[in-house]
Amino acid sequence: MAGLRAKQKADRTRRILEAATTLFRREGYDSARIEDIAEMAEVSVGTLYNYYQNKGDILVATVAMEVTEVLEGGARIVANPPLNVAEALRTLIEQYYDHSLYYLSKEMWRTAMAISIQQPDTPLSRRYTELDGQLCAQVIRLVETLQARGVVQAGVDAKAMGEVFFNNLNMMFIEFCKVDAMPLEELKARVNAQHEPIAALISSIKIV
């Protein structure tokens, strides 16, 4: 019985988040109403409030769903990365970027970012920061894995270097979200161009 309840809860959660993302995209975050989200998800407004206190909660839950799926895909890459620093970074980061607009639009990302900055002491902001931390940790693990396999120089501080790569890809993603007209391919090309020289510097395999 407990398993059935958990399955039903997961199903309702998924329906609420899918309805919310549909309405956020169609009507905009500010214009979307809780009542309409509940109706589209086929749950009562009361049931929805049992799961989420407000639209901000729903938005951050959507970000969490996005990041969870991205981390799962990233884990497979980190477990068996290309044995070339630039290629490994490109593969992981492009997996992040390619999934980034699956649930959320640029406008939704901007709103989530704004909430995390404007309300730094709230559970929503702490959750957003936690998700960023998980992504950063995965980039660090990639550098550590490459170093363990002899691709990254032994003297390189893998944690510091992973943080550098993550901070750059994160900042570039913010810039991407700020410009509605910027295509995803431009973002990927710019980040790859920025990371390639650093990858060459830390690589133990020099390409002539």
TrEMBL record:
Keywords (alphabetical) are: DNA-binding
Q: Which residues bind DNA?
A: 33-52
- Keyword hit for Oxidoreductase: no
InterPro entries cross-referenced by the UniProt entry: Homeodomain-like_sf, HTH-type_TetR-like_transc_reg, HTH_TetR, Tet_transcr_reg_TetR-rel_C_sf
Residues forming the HTH tetR-type domain are 10-70
Asked whether the keyword DNA-binding is assigned, the reply is: yes
What is the protein's given name?
Answer: TetR family transcriptional regulator
